[in-house]
Amino acid sequence: MATIEQSTATTSPDATPSYDPSHIPRGPVTAPLKFFDPPADGSKPFNYPNGTDPPEGLPRRNFGDADILVPIHDIRGREAAFSLDDNAFQPLTTDPSATATTTTAATDFASDEAVKAQYYPEVERLLRASIPGVSRVFLFDHTVRPSAGTRPPVLRAHIDQSATAAVGRVRHFFPDEAADLLRGRVRIINVWRPLNGPVQCSPLAVADSRTVRDDALVVVEHRYADRTGETLSLQHAHEQWYYWSGMQNHERLLLQCFDSEKGARVPHTAFVDPRSPVGGKERESIEVRALVFG
Fold first, then answer.
1. Rg of the Cα trace of the chain?
2. For residue 66, which of 157, 158, 2 has the smallest C-alpha distance?
3. Residue 123 to residue 134: CA distance in whole angstroms
4. What is the pLDDT of residues 94-126, one digit of tens each?
5. What letter would DSSP give residue 82?
């Protein structure tokens, strides 16, 4: 593992853990994020995800992590300054009273079938209402991250799909329409939210797309038993990082992984906030991934 490097940063006034279990860390903070550290032998990076055993003699992944201290800025109070077209992420606030009375409140997020039947329609409505010019939305995947389980928060800066993988998704789900769909604007957008907010531990950090260099993004083969996909890992190149402090259940963060027209894409990662309270609740969350056309 690479050694920690100190970036120029504005640190929070108190970057030590709180002993108040109700404490919600807010404001700017400097924290270590995990970045791509290439394979020592120069080979193409690969990863076998959980649930797929690597062939005998191969590691689960052949690349490492570089832990680097970076400043992470709080967007709380200036949410309107960020958009998908410019930054590749966009904070949204839904009506808390409406959220409490919708099907979301009764959704069993441990059940994939319940999430698809009850929560997916809400996500589609949100995307159509929030993104101008949308002609079609197709929700193709979701991940629930419980506080204890096999899908903990990902502590590594990444983008869920490469451009090649994004186009491959369109061809996979719409084989007869792909050629026509790919002539128009295609985006992959994740809708991320906590399930047990406000978030105290393992908040989500996002990098402003305008500050992310193309040559800092590295294609990683994501090897499943039946197919090989591609994700992107990030090498640190002094990009700007943000988080939304104390996210509540009625708040949503849109994460754009691919945009065929304007190109904005957002590396993101969970991080360990040094101010998180001792004994605070572990974050639970869900992210739904969508192909958005138009």
1. 19
2. 2
3. 14
4. 876 555 445 566 689 989 999 999 999 999 999
5. -
pLDDT of 13 > 50? The answer is: no
Distance CA 249, CA 102 (A): 13
Percent of the chain predicted with pLDDT > 70? 90
Nearest C-alpha neighbor of 139 from the set 154, 153, 119: 119
Cα separation, 219 vs 221, whole angstroms = 7
CA distance 102 to 87: 30
Cβ-contact 43, 220 below 8 angstroms: no
- State the first-to-last Cα distance of the chain, in angstroms, to the nearest integer: 42
Write phi, then psi, for 47 (nearest 5 degrees): -145, 135
- Output the six-digit token pair for 275: 């101010």
Separation of CA 130 from chain center: 18
Pairing of strands 64-74, 241-243: parallel
Place of tokens 């138009």: 294
Q: Of 237, 204, 214, which Cα lies nearest the Cα of 70?
A: 237
281: β partners: none
Cis? peptide before 49, omega within 30° of 0: no
SS (H, E, C) 15-49: CCCCCCCCCCCCCCEEEEEEEEECCCCCCCCEECC
